[in-house]
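Try this one yourself first.
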C-alpha cells in the first residue's frame, strides 16, 4: 500500500531586516519573548526582564508597552525590539522608540493600510494571528501587504501551545510571540528542520543571509 503524500507546505519567500541583520524566513521561525508590564512601572524592571528574555534564547524582545518603557530596551541593544500595536499612531510611536518590527492584529486591516502610507515608518510590519486555524485565511492579508505572518502564542502553555505553534509554522507563520521562550525555541528549531527537509533544494537550512543562524 502506498502511503499518502503529506500535504503541501505553503512557500514563504520573505526576508526580515532586524537592524543590521537580514533573516531569511523560508524555513526559519523567529521567537519574540514578551516582556510584561512592570510591577512598579520602572524602566529598570523592563530592561532586566528583557535581559532575561534574551538569555532564554529569544531572537527578539516584545515590549508592547508605552514608548518610555520600550525605548530603554531598544537603546540597550541586547535584542531587537518588537511591539504589538492597535493603531497607526501606536506603530509610529513604537518605531520612534526603537522598535524594528510592529505587529498588527489580523482583525485590524485598516491599520495595515494606514501604515502603507508611511514608507518612512522605520520598522518592519507583521500581521499577528490569534489562532492557528486562521493562518490559512490570513496568509492572503500578509501577502497583500508583503509583510511577515506571526502567531500570538502568549495565551497558551504546555502541550497545547506547542501544538498550536507547530501548526502555525507549518501554515506559514514565521514569528512566535510567546511568554515561554525556551518552549517556543524548541518548537521553532524542530519545525525549521522539518520544513527544510520537505523543501529540497532550498539550501538555506534556515540560515540568515551572511551564513549566520
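Now uncover the answer:
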Amino acid at each position: 500500500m502506498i502511503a499518502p503524500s503529506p500535504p503541501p507546505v505553503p512557500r514563504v519567500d520573505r526576508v526580515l531586516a532586524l537592524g543590521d541583520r537580514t533573516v531569511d524566513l523560508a524555513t526559519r521561525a523567529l521567537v519574540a519573548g514578551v516582556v510584561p508590564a512592570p510591577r512598579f512601572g520602572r524602566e529598570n524592571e523592563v530592561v532586566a526582564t528583557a535581559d532575561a528574555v534574551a538569555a532564554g534564547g529569544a531572537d527578539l524582545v516584545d515590549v508592547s508597552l508605552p514608548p518610555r518603557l520600550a525605548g530603554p530596551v531598544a537603546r540597550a541593544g541586547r535584542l531587537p525590539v518588537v511591539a504589538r500595536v492597535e493603531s497607526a499612531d501606536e506603530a509610529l510611536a513604537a518605531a520612534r522608540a526603537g522598535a524594528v518590527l510592529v505587529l498588527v492584529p489580523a482583525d485590524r486591516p485598516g491599520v495595515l493600510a494606514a501604515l502603507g502610507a508611511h514608507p518612512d515608518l522605520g520598522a518592519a510590519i507583521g500581521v499577528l494571528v490569534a489562532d492557528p486555524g486562521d493562518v490559512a485565511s490570513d496568509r492572503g492579508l500578509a501577502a497583500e501587504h508583503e509583510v511577515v505572518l506571526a502567531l500570538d502564542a502568549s495565551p497558551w502553555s504546555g502541550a497545547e501551545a506547542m501544538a498550536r505553534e507547530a501548526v502555525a509554522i507549518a501554515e506559514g507563520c514565521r514569528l512566535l510571540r510567546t511568554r515561554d521562550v525556551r518552549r517556543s525555541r524548541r518548537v521553532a528549531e524542530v519545525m525549521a528542520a522539518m520544513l527544510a527537509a520537505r523543501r529540497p533544494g532550498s539550501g538555506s537550512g534556515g540560515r540568515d543571509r551572511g551564513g549566520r543562524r
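Discussion: Residues 15-197 form a domain with the TIM Barrel fold (CATH 3.20.20.20). The beta strands are 15-18, 21-24, 30-34, 60-62, 81-84, 101-105, 124-129, 148-152, 175-178.
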